[in-house]
Amino acid sequence: MLNNKLNYISIFLFLSLLIFSSAQANPSIYGRFDIAISNIDKANEGATSDVKSHASRLGIKGSQIFDSGLSFIYQYELQTDPIDGDPPFKQRNSFIGLKAAFGQFIIGMHDTPVKQAQGKIDLFNDTAGDIKNILWGENRSRKIIQWSSPSLRGFKINLMTIMEDEEDEAYSLSVNWSGNFVGSKAKFSLAFDSEVPQKGYFFDTTRFSASIPLGKPSTLGVIWQESEDTTGKFDDDGYIISLKSKLIEKLSLKLMYGESDMIKSGGELIGFGFDYKVAKPLKLYVNYVEKNFDDIGKSSEEIMFGIQYKFDIGLF
User: Fold this and answer.
1) Fewest 10 Å CB contacts: which of 219, 234, 247, 288?
2) How far is residue 116's CA from residue 23's CA, in Å, rounded to a whole number?
3) pLDDT at res. 20
4) Are 161 and 145 in contact (CB under 8 A)?
5) Quick one: 67 exposed, middle or buried, by C-beta within 10 A (0-12, 13-18, 19+)?
6) How far is CA 169 from the centre of its chain?
């Protein structure tokens, strides 16, 4: 209990200091509340009901432009659980950096370029249907230095050095292209990890992803990936296919399917759901997620009804 109180106090003092010391740096407090009522049916255990937070978060971010054209940028983001409060806070993407004509440099904690290459293809991100259930490479790494190039004819490069392990450095790289494709915006990414740490292993990963418009109301998403750890214990590939289609002005259909032996043998991920956008910051959703593995005891089904609300409040 004392440790939790100290955590709250230290975070409050840090954020207060950051806010008042950055009055000229356009700070804003932003966040997302995402809470769902779920019915979970686990193999060999039966069905249970629960109320869960899906990566609710709170952060502060800002930037300051200097006369030279150089910008200082910063972000400090925490995942919070307003339901269980355990743990009360967990650090997410947090960094300081510089931005100018050369692109952007950041230092801190951040999603790797391989993880970011998923774009919006993972339609059930941060829920039981997250692609991390069957694919390696969904890493948020510490002690990173990342350079992101300016966009040139739709091409952009992200190069990250990871010094999370004291003895070795790891790298993550992506080459992205976005632009008009069949009259709508498309995105293609090719990304690589080199000895990136995850769950006690060091992975080399190749990930290709594509978001392809099928006319204005629908988008097809594809991820193909191969991952191998340096010990040779894991060496598998996998894929994800998703489709999001706007049925009416505020209602969208989501479909997703994936297979891989990476995390557990015989991994299969099935997702089906609807999003109803009440307003720009407010969304209601209903999802059905099924996870199957060769080990039947690890398989499960989950139906969830959730409410997601986003906010971004400028302070000065």
Assistant:
1) 247
2) 31
3) 53
4) yes
5) exposed
6) 23
pLDDT digits (tens, 9 = 90+) for 143-189: 999 999 999 999 999 999 999 877 778 999 999 999 988 778 899 99
Q: Is the pLDDT of residue 121 over 70?
A: yes
Give tens-digit pLDDT for 79-117: 999 998 877 889 999 999 999 999 999 999 999 999 999
pLDDT of residue 15: 56
Token look-up 């939790």 returns: 4
| pTM (2 d.p.) | 0.91
CA-nearest of 130, 131, 152, 75 to 108 is: 75
Compute the distance between CA of residue 195 and CA of residue 258 in angstroms, rounded to an integer.
24
Residue with tokens 């991952």: 227
Give the CB-side neighbour count of residue 282, counting CA atoms within 13 A.
Answer: 2
Long-range pairs for 281-288: beta carbons < 8 A, 24 or more residues apart: 281/309, 281/310, 281/311, 282/307, 282/308, 282/309, 283/307, 283/308, 283/309, 284/308, 285/36, 287/36, 287/124, 287/127, 287/129, 287/254
Cis check for the bond before 197: say yes or no (omega within 30 of 0): no
Ordered domains of the chain (ranges, CATH): 24-314 (2.40.160.10)
Tokens of 44: 């060999």
